Amino acid sequence: MSTSKIVLITGGNKGIGLETARQLGKLGFTILLGSRDEARGQEATATLTAENINAKAITLDITDLDTIQSAVKQIDDQYGSLDVLINNAGVCLERGLPPSQLELTVLRNTYETNVFGSFSVTKAMLPLIKKSPAGRIVNLSSGLASLTEYNNPESDAEKYGVNLLAYMSSKTAVNALTVLFAKELKDTPIKINSADPGYTATDLNGHTGYRTVEQGASIVVKLATLLGDGPNGGFFDENGVIPW
Ligand SMILES: NC(=O)c1ccc[n+]([C@@H]2O[C@H](COP(=O)([O-])OP(=O)(O)OC[C@H]3O[C@@H](n4cnc5c(N)ncnc54)[C@H](OP(=O)(O)O)[C@@H]3O)[C@@H](O)[C@H]2O)c1
Q1: Which residues of 42-79 are buried (b: 16+ CB within 10 A; e: fewer)?
Q2: Going by DSSP bridges, is the β-strand pair 6-9/235-237 parallel, antiparallel, or unpaired?
Q3: Belongs to which family (predicted)?
Q4: Domain ranges, ordered by start, for the chain
Q5: Domain 6-241, what fold?
Q6: CA-proximal residue: ligand 1, atom 42 (nearest)
Q7: pLDDT score recorded for residue 176
Q8: What is the pLDDT of residues 137-151, one digit of tens each?
Q9: CB 95 within 8 A of CB 88
């Protein structure tokens, strides 16, 4: 049995997820790097191993219940519990069309990953997280999830000026998952929070973001390593609380 804390990061093979793995690995966590593509997962894990990080690839497509159940079994067999789950895997499938022109299939597929996938992984992993003395769950939300911000003409153009119904509403729903799971778990040691990494240069946005993955991952790491007196059911970026 390992004595270091075990973290599962979904969509850990690139972008903010991979950098979160790197930062937590350097803090001594054992990294379970979730990737829907086995080869991409192995390749990313090899880069972490080369940096002396204890990392292992796990094939995990968050829209595929079989791979989720297989991941649960692997973690249970090898570690018996899970300390931290980072629901990082996410997609932005729309290409700038206004809500009235959004295809239903794009909306459905976005929710399939961002909402139903994150829900399914959380639900499946929860029995293992309950076996940790101090379980933590971090949901990758977005500044574009905030109803307050995206409905406020006074907020910056980066938020009010964007109108991507599928992506934005899916991340608002992710925030609802955070709040409602937190309510259920409030009398346990588990803490679940939403993180906004900020507009970060990754494949998700064609590298148009102006923040680095190092900056984006920092709030995720902070919420993954909260002490016992930390918040539960909140929504944060690196500057503090974000309005819902
Ligand atoms: N970048 C930003 O500005 C920004 C801002 C706010 C929030 N976020 C959120 O941060 C998270 C990470 O995004 P990123 O910017 O790092 O994007 P990214 O580089 O595109 O990485 C997304 C990751 O999610 C994985 N993924 C997608 N669908 C999956 C599925 N069904 N099962 C398992 N993995 C899946 C991808 O795997 P493949 O490599 O196989 O495609 C990839 O590893 C997302 O939840 C995103 O919404 C990003």
Answers
A1: eebbeebeeeebebbbbbbbbbeeebbeebbeebeeeb
A2: unpaired
A3: Belongs to the short-chain dehydrogenases/reductases (SDR) family.
A4: 6-241
A5: Rossmann fold (3.40.50)
A6: 11
A7: 98
A8: 999 999 999 999 998
A9: no
